[in-house]
Structures are given as C-alpha cells and as structure tokens.
Amino acid sequence: MKDSTALAKFSHLSGFRRVALLALGALVLCLGLIAATNVLAQQPVSGFNLERIQRATVFLIQAQDVGNDLEITCVGSGTIVNRNGLILTNAHNVAPSETCPGDTIVVALSVRLDEPPIPKYIAEIAQMDPGADLALLRITRQIDGRLIDPTTLGLPFVELGDSSSVALDQTITVVGYPGIGDDPLATVRGTISGFVAEPSGGERSWIKTSANIPGTMSGGGAYNSAGQLIGIPTTAPVSTIAASLACVWDTNRDGIINNSDRCIPLGDAINSLRPSNFAAPLLRAASLGITIQPLTNTATPPPPTDPPRFSRLFFSPSVNDAGMPTTVLRSLPAGSNSLYLFFDYENMTPETVYSLRVTTDGIPNPTFSLAPVRWSGGERGMWYLGSSTQPWPNGVYEFTLFANGIAADTARLVIGGAPQPAPTFSDISFGILDLQGNVLGNGFVLPAGNVASAEFLYRGMTDGTPWTAIWYYEGEEIFRTPEDTVWTGGAEGRRTTSISVPDGLLPGNYRLELFIESRLAATSDFIIAGAQEGVFPKIFDNAHFTTAASVAEARTSPAISTFAARTNVIYSVFNWQQIAPGTPWRMRWSVDGNVFYDQTQPWNGPESGQQYLVQVTGPDGIPDGTYKMDLFVGRLQLASIEARVGIGQLPIDRFALTTGAQLRGRIVDAETGQGIPGATFVLISDQYSVSDFTWDEEQIYATSISDQFGRFEIDRLLQFSTSDRQIPYSAVVVAEGYLPLSADGLVVEEGEDSSIDLLIQMIRD
Description:
By secondary structure, this protein is mostly beta strands.
C-alpha cells in the first residue's frame, strides 16, 4: 500500500540532486555520478531479514458458522508470498474435509512480534494441489466482511527459493505459530538431514530436517540463509489420536470439555518439508488469473468402506523411469547410499494420513522416517519411499508403515558386510514381441491385444533352479507358469516371458511377479490402454483447441490454434479409447514453457468416448502467450497440443509477482553510520525519470519506509531486463534533515542475483 502520508510529508522538496546508486552486483547504472560524495557505498547488508519473514508469516483459522458464532475447526501457519495477499499453506489446514469441515478462513497477523496474532482478514482458496498438500489463498475481505482491492494491500512477503539447490547439512530457519492462537511467532533452527523420494514428486518429494517443529507450524515456512522460502513444514493430524487434539470449547453444550466436543487437530512434531518448487505452478496460475476446469462429467467412485491397508513390503536399490523397482533385495552391502521401500496399498483416500517409522538396531532413526502426511496416491496400487542421496549406515533396519495412526505392516533389512552373491532378476520392461523375439514398445503402457510380453535381465542363475512367473489383472491372478518350471537359460543374459489371452487382454492395470524358488526376485506393474498403432498405444486422439459461444457448441467447433488477445474462454477437446476406470492419467498445462497446472488422478470416465472438454477461463482475459496441454497415462506422454493467444508471448512482467529481484538495504547517516528511521525510498516506474517525477502515485513502482534501524525493503520484485528489452528504474531517497538522493537508469540484468542489498549513506542538510 502506498504511504500517502509519507509522500505528502516530503512533497515540498524539489530540485533533487541527481546521484548514482551503486548496487551490489545486480544494479547497473546507465548514468554517471553527479555527486560522488553522495554515492551508495558498496557494503553488503545481510540477505536474511528475520523480522520481514516474521511479518510475512500468518496464523490461519478455518472456522464453521454455527448459529451466530464462528467455531474453530482447524488451525495452521501460512506465508504471504506476494504483496497482494497471496498466502501459501498446507491444503489440509484450509480445505473443507471430514477432519476440517469449516467454510471460512480467517487470517491473523502479529501486530507486535512478541504477542499472539490478531485476526485481520478473510481469505479464499485461489489454487490448490491436494496431492502435494499445498494451497494458495487470496485475501478478499477485511475481518468485518468489507471487500478488499488486493492491489491496495502492499503486505510484506517472502521470495520463493529454488528447493532443488538445497544441500545436506545446510542450515535452515523455520518460522510459524506453535500453538492454537495464544502464542506469538516461533523460530526454530536446524539443518537439512536428508531427502525422501515418492512416486508423486521424484527424488526430492520431501526435504528432511533435524529441526524440532511443532505440529501447528504446519503450513509455515522454512528459509535458507538468503531468506528465501525453500520448504513448507508439513504434517497431517490424525483426528482419532487424542494426543493430537486440543479440546478447548464445549461445542456439544453438555457442560464438559472433552473429546466428545469438536476438538482442534494439532498434528505431531514435524520433520518433513514439502519443497517450495511444488508451489511454483500454483503461484503462476494465480498470477495468470486463469482457471482450468474439466467439463466432461465423470462418475466419481464411492469412497472405500474398508480401512486402509499396506501389504507386500520389499526393498529395491533403485527405481526405473516408470517408478518401478529394478530388482528385489534381501540385504544391502556396506557403503550403500540408495534404498527404496516398496509396498502395495488399497482402500486409501486423499484424507488418509500415513507415516513411516524407521529404526536402526532398535533405535528410532528420524533421518529415514516420515512424519504423518496426507496420502497423495490413488485408492490402490504400488508405492515407494526411499532415498538415493545419502549413505545408509550399517545396521538392522525395521520399517513400519502406519495408516491413520495404526501400524499396518513391517519389514526388516540388514545393511552391512560384503555383497552376497545370489541369483537375481532385474529391469523388467513390457511390450509387443516381434518376429525376431524382440520386445518392442515404450516399456510400460501397452495397447490392447491378445499378447503381452515382458523382458528382464538375469544373473547368477543355475540351470535346474525352480522359478515362477505370475501375471495379475486388477489384483487378481490370471496366469502362472507350471509348478515344475525350472531354469534353462544359463547363468546370465536376457529373457522373455509372455501372457496370451485369446479373447484379448482387457484395458487396466497389470502386474508381473518373478520368483526364484519361492523368493520374490523382481516385480513390476504395467498398463494396457488404447488401440494398437504399430507397437504403441493410441489412447488420445483428435486433441485440439477451439472457442465457442457455449459449452455445447465447443464440443463440435472446428480446431483453432490462434486466438485474439484478451479472449476470455478457450476450450481443449480430445477423444479417448480403451482406458479402464482407475488408470492413472495426468493433465499438464504450461504457458511459454512455464507449468501452471499439473494434476494426476485415476480415470473415472467411460472406457472410450469422444469430446472430452476442458475449459480455460480468464475473467479479465487470458494473457497473451503460447499455451500447451500435455496428456499422460502413467508417466508416458501420449498427446500434446499448442495454441497461441494474442502475440503468443507473455508480457515480460506477468510473473513479476513471483520472479525478479528483491531490493532491500539500510539507510544510514554518512558521518555516524547510524540508521535513519522514517526515511522514504521511492522506486519510480520505468516509464518515468527523476525529472518527470511529481510524486504522483501512478509514477511509483514501489515505496518503502525505513525502520528504527534504517532498514528498508521494497515489497515488489524488480523485473529483470533482457537483451530484447531494458527496464530502467529511477529512485529517490528522502529523509527529514538530510539532502535527498536520486538516480536514473537502474537496471537489473537477467541472470544476476535475485536479492539486491544496498547501504545508502545520506548527508545532513
């Protein structure tokens, strides 16, 4: 928000002396020095500003309207990630669910950092990724219900960092609220202790930390030494565990406060961070102001009635491109740094809370454990947790999986000693067998047909050893080799096994298990879907973009690849064939190469059909750019289409809310070095120079008032200049009793540091 009082206070000043601002490596001046005595000294100011991070941290209250009162249903922490009131948090804190059934989101801020937060605003969910348990909120109203223009908020915010650059043993600072609203902000420091892989997010699905983080800080922020948000502390409360609940109101009006009342779920201690890179698409979608909405009606299956279940736990040293185990381990040699626990699951829902407890020689091992988090897979299938980025010390490991706080299954593995020679099968891939006996295809998604073949490697085998191949369809065994089958292929090589069904293999999810004697040696899942086109599946076809006056017309409108600027609605349309219900499929949208929508879910539509319709809407017009929709089955991309809106390229500042350079610094007395409180730093828009500046708010890009120590920070990120376009800013610095400073031609070059620190020395008037 522009400080009109501060602007008026200094509006009588005129004839500013034009001087140059010397930035630290990122600002490039286009004008020379006018007064060398008034330059901004090239002395760094620390990039980590804890006070700013704290002021960008909020306390979130999900509440339910009961009579004339708002009854608190869930609480958590959140972080403001742009000046217009976008707040990043965990989805389970704010999205209506069985555990958190509220319909109102209250945002509370700390006016004084040493006091509890005060409710200030009402927010709504702007974007959400349930699989990553992340939500982006938008402040829409004052606490009294009055509407807010988000552009007038001017709230302190934090910069999103690149979580892929986080390293082991790196120091982090975690900020959030440790209680249910009665406590001030808390700061916890720790180090990065590891990374956890999952199918939903790859090798860095979770960042592990040694910090001891309270459960109510879930949804807050974890920061690197530059003050950038690199992770979101995440844990999901288990509503059936009394220790994870806070019962503070007599909600059932029986005169007693106990577990019979509606209690606030708190969650266990947190040791896992969701990487900040998972939040980037949500921020992009919010900055674009557009919504992706599938319009084709699909039948949502009823939720499972049986309790969640884990089974068939086993270990693999690595994961292949399809997310499948490369082989099955019985032990692991000393010095290993890669291990994955695989397991089957069923009866899971998005609200299921699961966790992994690992012990080494009977002692809890938090480095490889996973605190309770929301489930991010489908109802049934195969999953894994593991790590390949750090050593696994020697010892006897016990892995126990929990579902909704109840121990589900356990597996043990010994790590240490020399490698033990043993016969092995590995690297299963699937396809169609050609006349020369080669298995062809993409490896894991096969077209419908009568025969499916698998190829695998083998080592250390002895002829005459019993072995078995078992094929499954949707969890039911459909074929196995005869009991008296023995190995005849020699010690090592490549082998093929096939399944043939005269009436045809139905679309759906399949599995192959390979046993050496009675031991599971290798296993992999694969999908059959689509018609056969050579050796590849043809699942999606006639995918295209179009526009129409109504949804009904969009289904039959001709394909269009170019749309006029400020178009409000466009549609994507595609046909599909032979996709069984429950088959995992994925839709991804990007603009100019930037992903802003990426959702994986089980297919719930008819097995085949036409004119699947997706609506893209932008109430203020879909921004210019080149838009792309990609369709996947499993991890295989099977369709891709592009369309151009307007000039086919985003305006350079479209993502300015999430990308650019953060300008901060300190304004000091040139003689004493003491900070100057109340100084005004004004950054002028690139459309104006200092000589044009008349203190008109339309000319101001951003402004900041220094605190009691002279520190200031510009809430709005500076846009990067490129070889195609230069964006020169101008700046004015004024403080009562000091000579004003000003400069033109401040440029932030693309590729420079994203954080700019200045030390500004002012001379008394």
